[in-house]
Amino acid sequence: MVKKSKKKTIASTRKQELTPEEIAAKEQQKKSNKGLKKLLAKRKAAFKKPKNEKKQQPKQTAAEKKAVDEKIQQKQSEVAAELNAMSAEMETQKAEKEAEREARKEKIQKIRSKIQLKPEHKQKIKGGVLTLIGLFALTFIGLFLFGKFFRPQALAEFLPLQETVAVLEVNTDGASDQIKQYFDTVKNYPVYQKSGLESLIGTLINVDFKNDVESWLGRKVGVALIQFQSAEAGAENSMVFNPVIFIESRNHELTLEKIKNRAMQESKLDLVYGEYKGFKLYSYTTSGRFHFMFINNYLVLAKDEETLKFIIDQFSNGKKLSEDESYIKVVNNLPQNNVAFGYMNFEKFFEAMLQNDPKFVAEKGQDYMALKPFISLFKANGVVLMAEKGKFVAQEYTLMDKEKLGDQEFITFSEKYNGKLLALANPDPVMLAGGHDVVKEIKRLQELFKAGTKTSSLIFEGILEAQKEQYLGKDISLKDDIYPLLEGEYLVTVEKSFEEPVITLFLEMKNTNEDSVRLEKLVTAFVQTSGIFTPKINDVTLPDGTKGKEIIASPETIQRFDESFDGINITSLQVGNTGVTLYYTTVSQNLVISTSHENIKNVIMRSNDKLDENFTSAPFYQSNIKQSIQNADEMFTMKVGALSALMGLTQNESLKPYVLPFGGMTVTKNYFADGISSIYQFEIL
């Protein structure tokens, strides 16, 4: 026999709603029932004889006993009558309650019957819902199409897939929020304002921007590098590697008129044109300076007609760069709203350089061929420049060949860099770099080299081994003695200037006791090896008796001294007569090595809470670094002014105004299974 399941309906489980009068009546009924129950209990207790009653009462006569029994019977009759009356009253109340319940059910049923939707009503509601969904979809599609059609066309939709080496696009839309933010960010620097940029353009390409360009200029300007097989007679096996310029035009007729006027003003030349597959190809009557045409909304310029014809052929029949998997992958990992966008295919770029630049072959050819397997791991690169309040941000994505990398455990890390050591550093370094594990990053490089070529990997490992032997000798092992000290977070700072740097290294020690023993072993080996050499000039006598001089590398003697500061030991390693002294100490399970005695003391005072100022308390850290390092594997920051001084840019009066606005630069990197994402932040002073 199948057991029937009891299903609870919405009506049976829904809490019934009562009016205030019904709630008050219900409460009164509860109080009445409670009083009746108390009275009944009291009556029963009054007539219940205790167990020892017979022993306590004295003997009674027959008449007295009879009178008592009659009295008890009378009392019992009264109680019974009272109980019957109470029971009847309770039954009456129960019946009234049941009647009320039935009345409520009937009322609810009537309400349900009133709100029950008829089929035609259901159809109307369904139609209304579908209409709302349709309106929402139409609005969404409308906004998408508005953004699509009113946004300048991407150059990748013109450019040939196989032959495009690189492309750069610049936003020239004055109504764009990014362009408005750009001019607001550099409002204090005239060279980066509109008038300053117009002057720069006029100087570089001899064009009057206001008169010749501004009236027809659209929302985007770009340049692409194209490499293709020349079809000209006698040009077999010859590759053409040309730049092609794209400028969006709001009015083709006005653009053509302005170009004609400019040509007449400069060289008294008129324009001529020919046709190719429905496109007009323009050039000057006697000058081959450049050729141009119009495709869709763009003015396209190239140095020869053949390049324009190739663009037309590919635009009409060939595949476009916008269909390339590498290009799509890079673009999808970068923000779309920007000031500028650049893309490069690494393999095509190096091939183009080898085929078209003799100097590249002579100077870099051998190096490139040696590193080609490693370089081949990197497929393409894209970067966008964005303007934000008080800074410029460049975001870069480098696409890697996932198949060549294979399943490499050190390419991506589960944990991220948290910057614990930053609180020990001085607040204003010239340069600072940090990460979460030196050993893992070394192994990452080794795996990248191995994925490219074993030769590159062996060269890399050989360099590490050679440096170890020079400064620490052959008895020290990279694997057993050095790497265990490098398994924690690291930080390197450079202070004062790049010309006279003060360098400090911070290392997190994972096992303090064992790492301290390793450290002493390394220091002893460093002192004994004396791997630092200073060139000296000695007088020599040649076999024929001629006196001469020769330069020899003389090893410097390293001396060790110890001192105590604020309860912590500081060790000094004085390197001969070079004037260089290395200082190191261990604080809070961190090894600190510096070329500055003062820096070591500052670190000790910070660890003892006697010095509050540190790198994390600086405004630059709060505004440019704090948020960036939360999703980073590595971090690097540098003062652009210090680098400009090192390169001599601030001494050049022409270049100086262009480098002055920039304060600090911060770079964070994040590694993925198939690419590297980097964010560059440039502080504007």
Descriptors:
alpha+beta, 18-stranded antiparallel β-sheet, two-stranded antiparallel sheet, 685 residues, 22 strands, single chain
Structure explained in plain terms:
- This protein is an alpha+beta fold.
- The strands form three sheets. The chain has an 18-stranded antiparallel sheet, sandwiched between helices. A two-stranded antiparallel ribbon has the order 4-5.
- The chain has 22 helices and 22 strands.
- Residues 1-16, 49-57 and 138-149 have low confidence and may be disordered.
Q: What does the secondary structure layout of this molecule look like, with pairings?
A:
Layout: H1 10-13, H2 20-46, H3 53-56, H4 62-115, H5 119-149, E1 164-171, H6 177-185, H7 194-205, H8 209-213, E2 217-229, E3 239-249, H9 252-267, E4 271-276, E5 279-284, E6 291-295, E7 298-302, H10 305-317, H11 325-332, E8 340-345, H12 346-356, H13 358-375, E9 378-388, E10 391-400, H14 402-405, E11 431-435, H15 438-452, H16 454-472, H17 478-482, E12 490-495, E13 502-508, H18 512-529, E14 533-541, E15 547-555, E16 558-565, E17 568-575, E18 580-587, E19 590-594, H19 597-607, H20 619-625, E20 634-639, H21 640-647, H22 656-659, E21 662-671, E22 675-684
Antiparallel strand pairs: 1-2, 1-8, 2-3, 3-7, 4-5, 6-7, 8-9, 9-10, 10-22, 11-12, 11-20, 12-13, 13-19, 14-15, 16-17, 17-18, 18-19, 20-21, 21-22
Helix pairs in contact: 2-4, 12-13, 13-15, 15-16
